[in-house]
Design brief:
about 425 residues; Rossmann fold; seven-stranded mixed β-sheet; five-stranded mixed β-sheet; 14 helices; 12 strands
Length: about 425
C-alpha cells in the first residue's frame, strides 16, 4: 500500500473535539441541559492589537483567549504562537484541556490562547513587545485564581516570564502564580520543561508493561515532532533503554533503524539554527508521512493535530499509538486503527504530564514552597498511573476504546460537579 501524507484539506479541530465529546457523552446519564452546557465554551475573547517592529513599522496582530469551563476550578491552558491559529482551534484546545484536567483530577477547568504570528520570523525584542501587549489585552480574563496561562507551540519559559512581569507591573507586586512553565529563577518548577514528554513515556511504559513487553531494548519507537514534547519524550524513552528509531520536526523526518543517540541529537539541535534537526547526518532523511508509516512498535505523534487521518491511518504499522500532541488522530482514523487492533493512549491522558506539573508549579508559587525534581517526578508518575487505572476501569465497564473511556471518565466528573454546584441563579 502506498504511503499517504495526512489529508491536505482543512480539518476543523473544534468539530473533531465536538464529535469526540458526542461519542463519549452518549454513554452518560446526565441531564440533557448539562450535556448541552458542557458542549459550549464559557467565554471567548478576540483581540486585535498593534506591535512596533524593530524597523519602526507598526503591525496589527490578532489573538484569542478562550475559557471552556470553570466548573472544577480556575481555567488552565497554554498560549500558542503560530501562523495558522484560529478561533476554532483554540476552542478545541480549551475543551480538551477541560477533559485533561478532569481526567487527572486537577482542580482546573480548560482554557487556551493563541496569537496569529510566525515566531520564527520575529526577533526576540519583537516577540517581547508582542507578548507584553497580548498579555495586557487578555488581562481582562487572566488571574492567579481565575485563569493561568502556560507555554504551548511557539512559546516557552521566556514568554511566560514576560507575561508574569507584565501582569505584575500592572497590579503593582510580583505574582509568580499568574503563569506556569516559567523559568526556575522567577518561580518556575523543577521538572516542568520535561514534564509533557516524560508523561508520554510514563504512559507508554505502563501500556507496554501491561501488555507483557518487559524488554525496552526490543521496542522500536518513532516520534513525530522534536519540540518541547517530542524532545523530552525521546530523551526519557532513550534513557529507559527504548530504541528510538525516528524523530522529526518541520524540516522532515530522521531515521536510523539501529536507534538514534538522543543525547547526540539534542546536542546537535542545541547549536543549530532555531534548534532544528536540519542537517543532522547520523540518520537517513525521510518525510513526515513516511515516519507515520514506519515499521515500528510505538508511534508517538507529538507535533500538531490531525496528523493521522482517514487518508493514512491504514498505513500505520505500530501496535501502540501514544498521543503526545493534542488531537493528532481524527475520529475516522480512530475507527480504522481500532479495526486494525492498534491500541491508542489518547491525548488527554498521554500528554497530561505538562498540566500536572503546571499544577504543582502553581501550588508551589501560591505557597512559596518549592519541591526538588525527584519529588516532582514521583508525584507526576503517581498522578498519571492513577489516571491510567481510572481509564482502564472505565474501558472495561463500558466496553469502549481508550479515547472514549478517557473522555467518559473526564466528562462524568465535570458533569457531576456541574449538577452538584447547580445552575446559577
Amino acid at each position: 500500500m502506498a504511503i499517504q501524507a495526512p489529508a491536505t484539506e482543512h480539518i476543523n479541530a473544534y468539530e473533531v473535539a465536538l464529535r469526540q465529546y458526542d461519542r463519549a457523552v452518549a454513554y452518560l446519564d446526565l441531564p440533557q441541559g448539562i450535556k448541552d452546557y458542557l458542549r459550549h465554551t464559557k467565554r471567548e475573547l478576540s483581540v486585535n492589537f498593534p506591535v512596533r517592529m524593530d524597523n519602526g513599522d507598526i503591525r496589527i496582530f490578532s489573538g484569542y483567549r478562550v475559557h471552556h469551563s470553570t466548573v472544577l476550578g480556575p481555567s488552565k491552558g497554554g498560549i500558542r504562537y503560530a501562523p495558522n491559529v484560529d478561533l476554532d482551534e483554540v476552542r478545541a484546545l480549551a475543551m480538551w484541556m477541560t477533559w485533561k484536567c478532569a481526567l487527572v483530577n486537577l482542580p482546573y477547568g480548560g482554557a487556551k490562547g493563541g496569537v496569529i504570528c510566525d515566531p520564527y520570523d520575529m526577533t526576540p525584542t519583537e516577540l517581547e513587545r508582542l507578548t507584553r501587549r497580548y498579555a495586557t489585552e487578555i488581562s481582562l480574563l487572566i488571574s492567579p485564581h481565575g485563569d493561568i496561562p502556560a507555554p504551548d507551540m511557539g512559546t516557552n519559559a521566556q514568554t511566560m516570564a514576560w507575561i508574569m512581569d507584565t501582569y505584575s507591573m500592572t497590579v503593582g507586586y510580583s505574582v509568580p502564580a499568574i503563569v506556569t512553565g516559567k523559568p526556575i529563577n522567577v518561580g518556575g518548577s523543577q521538572g516542568r520543561k520535561e514534564a509533557t514528554g516524560r508523561g508520554v513515556i510514563i504512559c507508554m511504559d505502563e501500556a507496554l508493561r501491561r501488555a507483557g513487553h518487559n524488554d525496552p531494548g526490543e521496542i522500536r519507537v518513532a516520534i513525530q515532532g522534536f519540540g518541547n514534547v517530542g524532545t523530552y519524550a525521546a530523551k526519557h524513552a532513550f534513557d529507559l533503554g527504548y530504541k528510538v528509531i525516528a524523530i522529526s520536526d518541520v524540516t522532515g523526518g530522521y531515521y536510523n533503524a539501529q536507534g538514534l543517540d538522543i543525547d547526540d541529537v539534542m546536542a546537535y539541535t542545541e547549536h543549530s539554527h532555531h534548534n532544528l534537526l536540519e542537517g543532522y547526518s547520523k540518520a537517513d532523511k525521510i518525510t513526515n508521512a513516511e515516519l507515520l508509516a514506519l515499521d515500528c512498535d510505538v508511534l508517538a505523534p507529538c507535533a500538531l493535530e490531525n496528523q493521522i487521518t482517514e487518508a493514512n491511518a491504514a498505513d500505520v504499522k505500530a501496535f501502540l499509538v501514544v498521543e503526545g500532541a493534542n488531537g493528532p488522530t481524527t475520529p475516522e482514523a480512530d475507527d480504522i486503527l481500532f479495526d486494525k487492533g492498534v491500541h491508542i493512549i489518547p491525548d488527554i491522558l498521554a500528554n497530561a504530564g505538562g498540566v500536572t506539573v503546571s499544577y504543582f508549579e502553581w501550588v508551589q508559587g501560591l505557597q512559596s514552597f518549592f519541591w526538588d525534581v525527584e519529588e516532582v517526578n514521583r508525584q507526576l508518575g503517581r498522578v498519571l498511573i492513577k489516571a491510567y487505572d481510572d481509564v482502564v476501569r472505565t474501558q472495561e465497564q463500558y466496553n469502549v476504546d481508550m479515547r472514549t473511556a478517557a473522555q467518559i471518565t473526564a466528562i462524568k466528573r465535570v458533569g457531576e460537579a456541574t449538577r452538584t454546584r447547580g445552575i446559577y441563579p
